[in-house]
Write a structure and sequence with these properties.
Blueprint lengths: L2 H6 L9 H16 L6 H8 L9 H8 L7 E3 L6 E3 L1 H12 L2 H23 L4 H15 L3 H33 L21 H10 L5 H17 L9 H16 L5
Antiparallel strand pairs: 1-2
Length: 259
């Protein structure tokens, strides 16, 4: 999908504030170009020949990354940003609140289902393939919370198997380096991972070199979304978020860590 095709699904886009336009550009880069992190130059390149970007784009991006509830997150490297949860929620509120926006999301769902079914078919383990296929089926029947909870469980289970087969020594070494109660744990089988809070597991996996820092960011974000979906709340889970969660977990966790 081109940038113009994406923006056509959002009525009165030209009347949006500079902040909202930047968030939409960030969402487009993430959702359609696979760019979890981006720069002002990346945004300008996406706009080239289609849309005039804000003249003070870099300055505005820095401002949007400031504060406790910032909509962008600034990486350690200079002028590299990513969408924060408040920013992602704001964009999805634009998409869910309009008729054409809904059509855009429907197209994403149709594309995602076809893609995810092919992806699940590539999984080597029969149990995992059946589990993830059941999760994907929740998308087709509009059960967004169920698919997010199941997809998260499937991704973590895959990482457990990957560590046990390929990175067990490194993971246990990273555990031993900790200064909290987890330093006394030694992993010998899958059941041992039940002793961890999931946020701690992610920290140790990064420290052990099991996952990259980019994958850690993906997992931290998806854990927050899973936590929201796993408990009764008034938060509406938009279908565009569901697609993002599944694609990120399948592409960046499962397929990047083959067993």
């Amino acid at each position: 999908m081109t940038l113009l095709e994406f923006l056509r699904g959002i009525p009165n886009f030209q009347e949006f504030s500079r902040k909202s336009k930047i968030l939409l550009l960030a969402y487009y880069l993430r959702q359609y170009k696979g760019m979890v992190e981006f720069t002002a130059e990346d945004m300008k390149a996406a706009c080239r020949g289609q849309l005039k970007p804000p003249s003070d784009l870099r300055v505005q991006m820095r401002l949007l990354a400031k504060g406790k509830n910032s909509v962008l997150v600034k990486a350690i490297a200079k002028d590299i940003f990513s969408l924060n949860m408040p920013g992602l929620d704001e964009v999805e509120s634009y998409l869910s609140g309009t008729g054409p926006g809904r059509a855009v999301v429907d197209a994403m769902i149709t594309d995602a289902l076809a893609y995810l079914k092919k992806t699940v078919a590539k999984l080597g383990d029969d149990n995992q393939r059946k589990f993830m296929a059941e999760a994907v089926s929740c998308l087709a029947v509009d059960a967004p919370r169920a698919i997010i909870v199941m997809a998260w469980a499937g991704a973590l289970d895959h990482l457990y198997d990957f560590i046990l087969k390929h990175k067990l020594a490194e993971f246990n070494a990273a555990l031993a380096r900790r200064t909290d109660r987890y330093s006394k744990i030694t992993i010998t089988g899958k059941d041992d991972f039940a002793d961890f809070k999931e946020c701690v597991f992610i920290e140790v996996a990064r420290s052990a070199g099991v996952i990259t820092n980019d994958v850690r960011k993906v997992l931290d974000e998806k854990l927050g979304i899973r936590n929201t979906c796993a408990h009764p709340s008034t938060v509406e889970v938009h279908r565009s978020k569901v697609v993002n969660v599944i694609e990120d977990l399948v592409d960046n966790v499962i397929l990047k860590h083959p067993i």
